[in-house]
Amino acid sequence: MSHLTPSQLSELKEEMERQLRKLERSMRVTAEAAAPVELDQTTVGRLSRMDSLQSQGMSKSLREREEVKLALLREAFARLEGGSYGLCVTCGGEIPFERLYVFPEAPSCSSCADSS
Prior knowledge:
Number of strands: 0
Mean pLDDT: 86
Structural class: mainly alpha
Low-confidence stretches: none
């Protein structure tokens, strides 16, 4: 059973939903930026192609981080529905409301997160 009040749980759920919407918008943009780079030498110069490849690489890295965050948010929603949200998945201890407000997807308390 969670140590969080119904009001806190509601506030955290709203924050997770807000972050999920923001992440979904960002992922649509990132998907477009990570599209294959056109290497037609007649249309762009060598430096422009290099810039495009570098930008594509950064977009792919961002996409990977976004996918991890999305998975963590989905897991947090599952814990919320299951009644274990706010409890550390490692030690079972309580995760403070303040930590969850900043990182609502946090699966573990700061002690366990620091030791992993």
